[in-house]
Amino acid sequence: MGQIDHTYITERIAQAESGAKEAFYDLGLLYSIGQGVDQDYIEAHKWFNLAAIRGMKSAQIDRAEVAEDMSNNDIATAQRMAREWLALH
Asked: What's the whole-model pTM score?
């Protein structure tokens, strides 16, 4: 995919705000590999969790893979962030 420009990320966030599960998943991927954003497993887990809540099986799998490299505290933080995101959107 090469470098991701910030326009793509901004568009995916806007699509996520409208509830697009694919946008949640794409943001999880970007954060999990650090493409176009700083690598952040907590953010990745949050976005994968939001996609999984919407029924994306691939997000459930990727969330579990990211969680293997996270502490229990990091996972709890990511889950809290997902709940807060849902409450605001």
From this structure: 0.91
